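Note to self: keep these together.
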Amino acid sequence: MDRTAWIAVALCVVGLVLWELYLAKQAPPRRAPVPAAPHQISPGPTGAASGSTSPIVAAPAIPSKAAETAPSFPEKIETLRNSDVELRLTNRGGGIKEAVLLKQVAEKGQRVVLNSAECAPIGSIIEQPSAPALPEFTASPQSNSAVQFERTTPEQIKIRKKFFFEKSPEEKDNFVIEMDVDVENRGPNPYQTAGYFVALGSAAPIHAKDYPSYTRLVWCIDGKAKGIDVGWFGGGSGFLGMGQHAARPFYQENIAGAEWVAVSDQFFTTLLAPLTAKASGVWGRRFDIERSRDEKLLGIEGAMGMPGFQLQPGQTYNARFEIYAGPKLYHRLAQLSHNEAEVMDFGMFKIVCQFLLNFMNLLHSWLGNYAAAILALTTVIKLVLWPIQNRANRSMRQMSALSPKMQELREKYKDDPTRMNQEVMKLYKSYGINPVGGCLPMVIQIPIFFGLFKMLGQAVELRNAKFLWVRDLSQPDTVAHLHLPFLTWPVPINIIPLCMAATQIWLMQMTPKTGDATQRRVMMFTPLIFLFICYNFAAALALYYTTQNLFSILQFYQNKKQPMPTLEKVAPAGKRKR
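Structure:
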């Protein structure tokens, strides 16, 4: 290869290595175990009545600020339940200790539970999130669908908190809880607070190899989501010394008019939207989670700041909050009225992601299988692009036929690159060939690919969806691990990404050779780049791209059976008009 090709290849390799080093740096180091638990998992009993509790698999505690001082009163648990979620409410702080997602299966057939039992309960009102005090509340279940907590402070300030499920016309996916707060001044003196925090609970990775960017503290202002992930808290050396910073113990920011604040992992979120006044601040901290001797994860705990208020004797302050504690189902979040769907973090490909997700779910409603839905989605996209790809293939075959003439020009003007480019463009124009005609399908595929990348990274619908040997389309399809002597970690063997790379190489071999030799050599590394992107990502993305490659191979075979296009010079524009 010439110097330009070697430079391009070296830049690709350096970029891949730097990305791997970045991910490795974001991942928590392995260390000796300390008791911890991210999401507790409960077994799957059915038919439990409201007010009853099902047993929880014993899990070690997360060291947290809330657990620094043991409460002097016994804990009492009340339970609210519908067909989708079971809330376990505690008298310690008067909030939701855990939210059990009854239809979300985790490892070993157990259920996903949001919030660590050792973190501040969801909805508890606290003054200092870094060291929350959780006073005792008196619980009084009002019915099978509501629980009220009460507490009176020594200053005769009575606090009432009521939790109940919002009524919904939907028959499923009901994860919305309302929390009503009343603060009544029954004392003789005025009461004033400069502000308070409402605890969001915590979020943690679902799997050991989840990207750090999945575990986030998020808030929404004017319909646009902002946030930080667990990587923000770690120290960084920056790039060549620039941007260097030490580890940060917590995040706190005063904000104006936030519509909601949430803690979120890859597939689940706990989101609080204040209904009577917008949030005025956010707070978050990262904590370590030990699941085994060799496995440490990073979780995030958050709180939402609210503006202060003043009460004269006999006055009452009222506040209402909407809590969404459940999977990040786009169709359900989009039904809520405070831009809650922005927690999905689709970014610049938002419109593409929304369309692909809704279309995939529509196909699933017809086919009943997500693997079949992905295959059908690929088929539809390929059929829409089929005429465009036909024209692109014809353009590439024309350029391939023109290659000898182009090579003559390159040899003739090899010492004058500007003149050579001018003559090449004249050659294209004289034969009526669009030099970028073969690139159009690829340009269209780029937003689709990255839209799928963003969408499939959060599509909770794909959890536990099976396809042949794949047990979970939302995760890599690892069938075994390869232990190499020069590596300290096992290398996963993922079949579908390897098939994707193989079909892409096959497709490149079929593609007519156009452009100069340097460009062709650089393009040879495209399968490596896509393999790197997809290898440890959701198997659904590699399944889509492999299927798309197979359709492209079929189309090339069909196009090759057609006669080779003849090269004919086109008449100049002026002569054609006559």
